[in-house]
Amino acid sequence: MDIQSVLVLFGTFAFLMILGVPIAFAIGLAAFATFLLFMSFDQSVYIVAQQVASGLDSFTLLAIPFFILAGNIMNRGGIAMRLIEFAKVLAGRLPGALAHCNVIANMMFGSISGSAVASAAAVGGVMSPLQKKEGYDPAFSAAVNIASCPTGLLIPPSATFIVYSLITNGTSIAALFVAGYIPGILMGLSLMVVAGIIAKRRGYPVAERPSGQEVIAKTLDAMLPLGLIVIVMGGIIGGIFTATEASAVAVVYTLFLGVIWYREISPRELPGIILESAVTTSIVLLMIGCSIAMSKAMAFADIPYSISDTLLSLSENPLVLLLIINLALLVVGTFMDMTPALLIFTPIFLPVVEDLGMDPVHFGVVMTFNLCIGICTPPVGSALFVGCSVGGVKIGQVLRPMLGFYAVLVALLLLVTYVPALSLFLPRVLLGY
Amino acid sequence: MTVITRGVDMVLRLVITIAFAVLVACVVWQVVSRYVLQSPSTVTDEMARFLFIWVALLGGAYTFGQRRHLAIDLLPVITTGILRLLVNVGIIAAIALFAGVVMVYGGLDLVSRTLETQQVSPALRLPMGLVYIAIPFSGLCILYYCLTFLADLFRTGRGPNEQEGTASVGGPLD
Amino acid sequence: KTLRLNHNNPEDHPLHKSMQFMAERVEELTDGDLKIRIYANAQLGTQRESMELMQNGSLDMARSNASELEAFEESYGALNLPYIFVSADHYYDVLTNDIGADILASSEDKGFIGLAYYIEGARSFYANKAIHSPADLKGMKIRVQPSPSAIRMVELLGANPTPIAWGELYSALQQGVVDGAENNPIALTSARHGEVSKFYSDDGHTMIPSVVMISTSSWNDLTDEQKEAMRTAARESMDFHREQWDAMSAEAVETAKSELGVEFVEVEKGPFIEAVLPMHEEAAAKSPVVADLIKRIKAAAQ
Ligand code: NA
Ligand code: NA
């Protein structure tokens, strides 16, 4: 194993990241330092500059700003409220109905907005006062909200899968999207089971039975926002349009809903929403450009193969290796945000698991699921931070009720890892993948 | 300096917003031309991809100017006094190194070489050098912001990662 | 000395095997002095990126095809014209004689030099109906690569050119997003397009070769013996590749017929040739270099 290039790459990256350099630049400089080992100064700057721009040259990638824009338009209006009312109907008369309602609303809202933190903020913001009023422990309600908000990253459409597709040289986005359904829904359901048990033990109230009229009204009210999922996923699964085109259609649909149908957004607000979406997007995109440069530097230095060889020398047993990879990713997830972790570690681990005969779509789901846990853990966890802040509780308080959820999420992660059918069944049936 | 900064901000904002809107229109047109007009456009794909590179790189510069790129803001927060100053200078220097050397110097080399060899894009026959100009341009803007951040640091002690008001939490895709 | 060669095919692809053959021969001929390390699956970048890297000497070698190369060196445009070759033998003749060699050498000042052509068969239309003449193409949406000559050709034949990414093409054909596509018969089996397109109409409009190249600066760093070894290995790998490809192509046709039920349609090429002939004049009018190449290629057919 060529230890020098590994040290230069990860050493530079770690040093700069700890110093506080924005991650995108830290990645770019680490790539640059690694290229210097193989070529002249002029050639190194040339290749990094090229990769930063050219890494973004992908029609697929366009889906990210569009989904973010559609999500931002959605977040303006009263979509969250409509979905929560519908979730209440679905949660019905289960013990701790409001906790279940929170999970279901996160699954629906997260699916549409594709953002765990937006979901935690929008749904948690409405749900936590309601739960407090009914006597729920605020730390418990915050924990439910935090643990369930990442479901939307697995339930499609999901920008995370688009990033994964890009760095894996075009793993089918349609397949990844469809593969996310069962693990994402299982994630939500298992959290509901745990929350239900706790709620029952603590005697949290069930909801009042809604009248038939209410059920119909609230269901109808949620249909238009949920129609987005039908259009996007129906279009993709039906092969009518690509993920990118679907995302553009999603923008048009949300514009129609927000500006014309609900009249919750005035056209004057649009430039601001567009700019905000561009800013949010370019944080990711600069990181992607630099990461592409880094993955090329790794390829030049044969780093993925070195690491793959090292891992394979540890054990021949695929079950053990997958366990090691999952543990490594869980550790990474504690201190790193989802996107950089995905960008940096996918090119390293994918060759290993492909050697083990794992399907790249399956691994994409495992990786995303794993990092979904990471955004709920301290010290760095965006879902944890947002969930605590909208729930009005301290991080220290929420960790105790989170323990049970961590346990069920890790158990489910192992299930998703070792039972490929959970991910691959739907793509095979629906897409002939 | 604040006047120039406001000017740079405004130009970037304007270009990004318009380019983004055109981008949406481009892809929507691609769908419409195929399904409604039954004569698919052959250029929207490439146009959108190149526009997107511009939006991403200029957006990256503007976002940097807004101090919104993701960083692990640990050292600048726990250190004090001269050490904190050094850490913040180090951060700005590292970013300036990337922007100046890789984006501006390397980017210009890429631009001039692709212009020199007259390389064109497949569909639009657009000189690729024009697409790549976004790199040095973005690098220049970032360099400029680095300067203002440095001035800020010495004048008010504000570090390059410190946003105004409350910072937004989390990665954009989380 | 080890040269890095980047390409975008998987490791089980015939193109990869031919490059491997070339690498082995170079190593043998130089007694291990010169090695070629092949990076498959575009690990070091796309075809366009590889070209730009070779121009700067950041990458030693790459494989691309004449269609993509047209953006870097106009001479390759002559090879992309429909019906410029009258037969597979004429085609291979041109690639292996001085015309082919001149095109390979033409890009030296652009930062790269061609070493070998790898044939990829003739491309024809396939769809869910037989296409006997350009009239049958009228109004059909045909998937093309995003190159001006491909777009122009399909337009001249009366169809609507539709650029769709290669990876999306299967479902696009299945759902009728496009009515047809054009490629060599191997696409029917390797990309399973034979499952969704049941008629392969053998009009053989274009024969577009892959090209293996070396960066001019890497080339100049080689000794004369090493250059000679590279040339020999490159030439030998071309024949190796042709045999490999023809065998695979024949096998693909058989599989497509027997297992996928694709019908292969014999086509009277005359009306197709007539329809796209203006392209030869257009290309010649645009560039004297290409005009000269067209003349020489046509002369070689006699
Ligand atoms: Na989603
Ligand atoms: Na974490």
From TrEMBL, chain A:
<keyword id="KW-0472">Membrane</keyword>
<feature type="transmembrane region" description="Helical">
    <location>
        <begin position="319"/>
        <end position="349"/>
    </location>
</feature>
<dbReference type="InterPro" id="IPR004681">
    <property type="entry name" value="TRAP_DctM"/>
</dbReference>
<feature type="transmembrane region" description="Helical">
    <location>
        <begin position="6"/>
        <end position="38"/>
    </location>
</feature>
<feature type="transmembrane region" description="Helical">
    <location>
        <begin position="139"/>
        <end position="167"/>
    </location>
</feature>
<comment type="similarity">
    <text>Belongs to the TRAP transporter large permease family.</text>
</comment>
<comment type="function">
    <text>Part of the tripartite ATP-independent periplasmic (TRAP) transport system.</text>
</comment>
<feature type="transmembrane region" description="Helical">
    <location>
        <begin position="274"/>
        <end position="299"/>
    </location>
</feature>
<protein>
    <recommendedName>
        <fullName>TRAP transporter large permease protein</fullName>
    </recommendedName>
</protein>
<feature type="transmembrane region" description="Helical">
    <location>
        <begin position="361"/>
        <end position="385"/>
    </location>
</feature>
<feature type="transmembrane region" description="Helical">
    <location>
        <begin position="246"/>
        <end position="262"/>
    </location>
</feature>
<feature type="transmembrane region" description="Helical">
    <location>
        <begin position="59"/>
        <end position="84"/>
    </location>
</feature>
<keyword id="KW-1133">Transmembrane helix</keyword>
<keyword id="KW-0997">Cell inner membrane</keyword>
<dbReference type="GO" id="GO:0005886">
    <property type="term" value="C:plasma membrane"/>
</dbReference>
<feature type="transmembrane region" description="Helical">
    <location>
        <begin position="173"/>
        <end position="199"/>
    </location>
</feature>
<dbReference type="GO" id="GO:0022857">
    <property type="term" value="F:transmembrane transporter activity"/>
</dbReference>
<keyword id="KW-0813">Transport</keyword>
<feature type="transmembrane region" description="Helical">
    <location>
        <begin position="220"/>
        <end position="240"/>
    </location>
</feature>
<keyword id="KW-1003">Cell membrane</keyword>
<feature type="transmembrane region" description="Helical">
    <location>
        <begin position="104"/>
        <end position="127"/>
    </location>
</feature>
<dbReference type="Pfam" id="PF06808">
    <property type="entry name" value="DctM"/>
</dbReference>
TrEMBL record, chain B:
<keyword id="KW-0813">Transport</keyword>
<dbReference type="InterPro" id="IPR007387">
    <property type="entry name" value="TRAP_DctQ"/>
</dbReference>
<comment type="function">
    <text>Part of the tripartite ATP-independent periplasmic (TRAP) transport system.</text>
</comment>
<dbReference type="GO" id="GO:0022857">
    <property type="term" value="F:transmembrane transporter activity"/>
</dbReference>
<keyword id="KW-0997">Cell inner membrane</keyword>
<dbReference type="Pfam" id="PF04290">
    <property type="entry name" value="DctQ"/>
</dbReference>
<feature type="domain" description="Tripartite ATP-independent periplasmic transporters DctQ component">
    <location>
        <begin position="23"/>
        <end position="155"/>
    </location>
</feature>
<feature type="transmembrane region" description="Helical">
    <location>
        <begin position="12"/>
        <end position="32"/>
    </location>
</feature>
<keyword id="KW-0472">Membrane</keyword>
<feature type="transmembrane region" description="Helical">
    <location>
        <begin position="47"/>
        <end position="64"/>
    </location>
</feature>
<dbReference type="InterPro" id="IPR055348">
    <property type="entry name" value="DctQ"/>
</dbReference>
<comment type="similarity">
    <text>Belongs to the TRAP transporter small permease family.</text>
</comment>
<protein>
    <recommendedName>
        <fullName>TRAP transporter small permease protein</fullName>
    </recommendedName>
</protein>
<feature type="transmembrane region" description="Helical">
    <location>
        <begin position="128"/>
        <end position="151"/>
    </location>
</feature>
<keyword id="KW-1133">Transmembrane helix</keyword>
<feature type="transmembrane region" description="Helical">
    <location>
        <begin position="85"/>
        <end position="108"/>
    </location>
</feature>
<comment type="subunit">
    <text>The complex comprises the extracytoplasmic solute receptor protein and the two transmembrane proteins.</text>
</comment>
<dbReference type="GO" id="GO:0015740">
    <property type="term" value="P:C4-dicarboxylate transport"/>
</dbReference>
<keyword id="KW-0812">Transmembrane</keyword>
<keyword id="KW-1003">Cell membrane</keyword>
<dbReference type="GO" id="GO:0005886">
    <property type="term" value="C:plasma membrane"/>
</dbReference>
